[in-house]
């Protein structure tokens, strides 16, 4: 689930064990499954972005639920070649908004 413009997007060494809380499991995990399917089918970054946007527009993906978060508590996580193993942390999902807000 690296951002599309992240230089490590295609890095096969990345390992980020994630535990989702129930709101994230219902709203983030379907996006993860879709992106994984598209990547494994050979889709390019542009195709993945296009197909994901289309899935949201067709309501094939659920909206973000309030309180969605995940726990990344494993010390074995490897999130970046330059940083190596990463520290345990939490991630909170919030809707995209205008930068001014």
Features:
alpha+beta; 3-stranded antiparallel sheet; two-stranded antiparallel ribbon; globular; single chain; 101 residues
Quick description:
Helix content is 31%, strand content 15%.
Task: Please tell me about this protein's structure.
The protein is α+β, with helices and mostly antiparallel strands and 101 residues long. The protein has one domain (19-92). 31% of the residues lie in helices and 15% in strands. The protein is built from three helices and five strands. It has helices at 22-27, 29-40, 45-57, and strands spanning 19-20, 69-72, 78-80, 84-85, 89-92. The chain has a three-stranded antiparallel beta sheet with strand order 1-2-5. Strand 3 and strand 4 (84-85) form a beta hairpin. Helix 2 (29-40) packs across helix 3 (45-57). The longest helix is centred in the middle third of the chain and has 13 residues, at 45-57. It starts with 18 loop residues before the first strand and ends in a 9-residue tail after the last strand.
N-to-C CA distance: 25 Å
Q: What's the number of extended β-strand segments?
A: 5
Please give the largest β-sheet.
3 strands, antiparallel
Shape: globular
Major β-sheet strand ordering: 1-2-5
What is the CA-atom radius of gyration, in angstroms?
A: 14 Å
Percentage beta strand: 5-15%
Q: Please tell me the total number of domains.
A: 1
Order of helices and strands: EHHHEEEE
Q: How many separate helices?
A: 3
Q: State the helicity in percent bands.
A: 25-40%
Mean pLDDT: 86
- Report the structural category: alpha+beta
